[in-house]
Design brief:
Elements: H1 4-16, H2 22-31, H3 38-49, H4 58-75, E1 85-86, E2 89-90, H5 92-95, H6 98-116, H7 123-137, H8 142-153, H9 160-185, H10 192-216, H11 219-222, H12 227-230, H13 236-240, H14 242-260, H15 268-278
Antiparallel strand pairs: 1-2
Helix pairs in contact: 1-2, 2-6, 3-4, 3-9, 3-15, 4-6, 4-9, 7-9, 8-9, 9-10, 10-14
C-alpha cells in the first residue's frame, strides 16, 4: 500500500487535533479502526500514476475517508441498518450510544471540509475539490443512494436495474471521488469522464462482491454483521444467483481494465488496487 503508515499517522493527527472530548474520541474510534482504506489508496495511486507525490493528496484522502466513516456510523444506526458489528468490533452506537454516534458522524462530515482546504494547490482547485466532495457525497450522490437503499428494503419486487441504481450512488460515487480529486490536483480534469466510468464499474463490482461475501463467509470473517441475509434484503446474489453474481464481478473487471487503457498515465498502481479488490475476502 502507498504510504500506509504515513497516512494513518496523518489521519490520527487530523481527527484528534484540538480540544479532546467524547465526540472526538468517538470519531477516532471509527476512523482509526483500520478498514481497507480503498478510497485513500485510489487517490494516491492516481496521483502516483500522474507522476506526482502521493502525499500531496493526504488532506483530500483524509477528508474522503472521514466522509466514508461518517456514512458507516450513520448507516449502522437502528434507524438505518441496525448493525452491531463493524470492522470486527462493536459499531459506534453500540460502543458509545446513539446520540454520541450521531454527533461523531456529523463531526466527521464537517471536519472533512476543513481538512480538504489544506490541500497544497491553487485556490480554484480547492473549490473544485470541495464541489466534487459535496456533490458525490451529498443529496445527489451517496445520500441519494442511501435513500434508494432504504426504499429498496421494502420493495419485494426490486429489479436488477434498481440494484444498479442503488450501487451507483451509494457505493460507486465515493469510489469515483478519490480518482476525480486526484485528476483535479494533477490538473488533468480532461481525464474525469474516463475516471468516472472506472469508478462506476469498481463501485458496482465492489457491492456485488459484498453480496457474495455476505452469503459465503461468517460475520466474524467478514468483519461486520451479515445483516442482508437476516433482513431478507434483495441483493445481486438473491436476484441472480451466486454463480451469475461471480461472473458479473469478472465482467466488470474487464470493463474497468478496458477504460484504464484510455488514460495517458502509469495505470499500474491503480491496476494493483483493482486486482486486490478482485480477490478480497473481507
Amino acid at each position: 500500500m502507498i504510504l500506509q503508515k504515513e497516512f494513518e499517522s496523518y489521519l490520527q493527527e487530523k481527527v484528534l487535533e484540538g480540544k479532546q472530548h467524547l465526540t472526538k474520541e468517538a470519531m477516532a474510534y471509527s476512523l482509526l479502526d483500520g478498514g481497507k482504506r480503498v478510497r485513500p489508496q485510489l487517490l494516491m495511486a492516481t496521483l502516483k500514476g500522474y507522476g506526482m507525490d502521493p502525499a500531496l493528496g493526504f488532506p483530500c484522502a483524509c477528508a474522503i475517508e472521514m466522509i466514508h466513516t461518517y456514512s458507516l456510523i450513520h448507516d449502522d444506526l437502528p434507524a438505518m441498518d441496525d448493525d452491531d458489528l463493524r470492522r470486527g468490533k462493536p459499531t459506534n452506537h453500540k460502543y458509545y450510544d446513539e446520540a454520541t454516534a450521531i454527533l461523531a458522524g456529523d463531526s466527521l462530515l464537517t471536519r472533512a471540509f476543513e481538512v480538504v482546504c489544506e490541500t497544497e494547490v491553487q485556490a480554484l482547485q480547492i473549490v473544485d475539490l470541495v464541489k466534487q466532495i459535496s456533490h458525490k457525497s451529498g443529496v445527489d450522490g451517496m445520500i441519494y443512494g442511501q435513500e434508494l437503499d432504504i426504499i429498496g428494503e421494502n420493495n419485494k419486487n426490486i429489479s436488477y436495474q434498481d440494484l444498479l441504481d442503488i450501487d451507483e450512488y451509494k457505493t460507486a460515487k465515493l469510489l469515483t471521488l478519490p480518482m476525480v480529486c486526484a485528476a483535479i490536483i494533477a490538473n488533468r480534469k480532461e481525464d474525469i469522464p474516463v475516471l468516472e466510468k472506472i469508478g462506476y464499474y469498481v463501485g458496482v463490482q465492489f457491492q456485488i462482491q459484498d453480496d457474495i461475501l455476505d452469503v459465503t463467509i461468517s460475520s466474524e470473517q467478514f468483519g461486520k454483521s451479515t445483516s442482508d441475509q437476516d433482513n431478507h434484503k434483495s441483493t445481486f446474489v438473491s436476484l441472480l444467483g451466486l454463480e451469475k453474481a461471480k461472473q458479473m464481478v469478472i465482467d466488470y473487471d474487464c470493463l474497468l481494465k478496458k477504460e484504464l487503457t484510455k488514460l495517458e498515465m502509469d495505470t499500474s498502481y491503480l491496476e494493483e488496487i483493482f486486482n486486490t479488490l478482485l480477490t478480497r475476502t473481507y
